[in-house]
Design goal:
The chain has 232 residues and is mostly helical. The protein has 13 helices and no strands. It has two domains: 101 residues, Leucine-rich Repeat Variant; 92 residues, Leucine-rich Repeat Variant (Alpha Horseshoe). Helix content is 63%, strand content 0%. Helix 5 runs parallel beside helix 7 and helix 9 runs parallel beside helix 11. The radius of gyration is 19 Å and the shape is globular.
């Protein structure tokens, strides 16, 4: 699905401030290390996270709260810039304003998840943005049912992790079904995500997770089972 960048005066202002402010703190030596740590997924400016968030507050100072169109424009325009810190800005911004977005924002999330994907952006988008949208509109759970079967491992990982912060509101049957649906996946990032979402839910219902892992140990990858029961 093609996603177009909508017009937004707020986005114009944010992007002008952002692309002026962030480069002032660029550290080429740190950028090399950051890029290597992230397996060369993207270039970096080399701005450490605490400083980057401080600069973000400067960028956003005095600006109004966004609507859904503003959120889409800002996120999509950040994603068009090569340096990874701009994507981090967008993720932070969407986490802060996800409640201002409707279920119609999900295609934007999918675009972000599948464009220059790596765990550093995907996991926060999954747990805080996709998860927030589904929590606000439970009908979107059917979209997650499609995502868990997607050939793109980052889309499937998003489905696995979207309930990560739900605690007592977790749909346990859906969680366990998703884990089994991808239990045979060969990729580390899926197997790790299965273990992670189970381990997180074990903080809420340890007995359910323990019983599930014992019952399905033959289907779960050793990594997934080990991660799931790490704190039990």
């Amino acid at each position: 699905m093609n996603v177009t960048v909508p017009r937004s005066d707020l986005a114009d202002t944010v992007m002008e401030r952002l692309t002026t402010t962030y480069p002032t703190a660029a550290d080429p030596e740190r950028a090399v290390g950051a890029r290597a740590y992230m397996k060369n997924v993207a270039p970096f400016l080399g701005v450490p996270t605490p400083l980057r968030r401080e600069l973000s507050r400067t960028v956003l100072a005095g600006l109004p709260r966004p609507d859904e169109t503003d959120c889409a424009a800002i996120a999509l325009r950040c994603w068009e810039l090569p340096e990874r810190e701009y994507a981090y800005f967008a993720v932070d911004y969407l986490r802060r304003h996800v409640k201002r977005c409707s279920s119609g924002f999900l295609p934007v999330v999918r675009h972000l998840v599948t464009t220059v994907p790596w765990w550093d952006t995907v996991d926060a988008l999954a747990a805080h943005v996709a998860g927030g949208l589904v929590a606000a509109d439970p009908k979107l759970a059917s979209e997650m049912d499609a995502w868990i079967a997607d050939e793109d491992l980052w889309v499937a990982r998003t489905a696995l992790l979207h309930q990560l912060r739900y605690k007592d509101a977790t749909d346990t049957e859906r969680l366990f079904t998703y884990c089994l649906r991808q239990s045979g996946h060969p990729d580390f990032f899926i197997r790790k995500a299965i273990g992670w979402c189970l381990r997180e839910y074990a903080k809420t219902d340890p007995e359910a997770v323990r019983d599930f892992v014992e019952r399905e140990r033959g289907r779960l990858a050793p990594l997934s089972a080990r991660e799931a029961t790490k704190n039990l």
